[in-house]
Amino acid sequence: MRNWLIRSAALVTAAGAALVAGAVPAASDGADVTTVHTVLTGDAERPGPGDPDGRGAFVAIIRGDTLCYTLVALRIEPATAAHIHIAPPTAPGPIVVGLETPDPLSRGCITAVPDDQNTTMTLSESELAAIVADPTAYYVNVHNASFQPGAIRGQLR
């Protein structure tokens, strides 16, 4: 199973990077580009249990105030939600921003809003800067009816 994860992560990361690279708006101001990614598994879900059969991958490219991503969730019942959360790998944490629900693939771009306009489901400029500064403090997870707290999860890197 570990080999499957390694091959899948490499393939999805490469494919996702190619997909979102074209979607990220060109930055005329020379903005830096940051890439974050993760492999999602049921074993990583906290407090658990997650779906033991579930697998997935997430890759995002951040340029300026925009985060563009691709998310895939495989071998789980139909997904009902997906999010980026803040917490260490050993704990659940609050939602930072909602993602398009994968079926089994989703992708999109999120533009950060000024901090004073932030709501639960939007991404603030300071939250985006914090993800760039320390992606390992954040994780992505996918929920479904059987695993409402989370079917699969992966810590960003």
UniProtKB/TrEMBL annotation:
It comes from the Bacteria. The keyword Hydrolase does not apply. It holds the Pfam family CHRD. It comes from Jiangella anatolica. Keywords: Signal. Residues 1-26 form the signal peptide. Residues 34-157 form the CHRD domain. This is CHRD domain-containing protein.
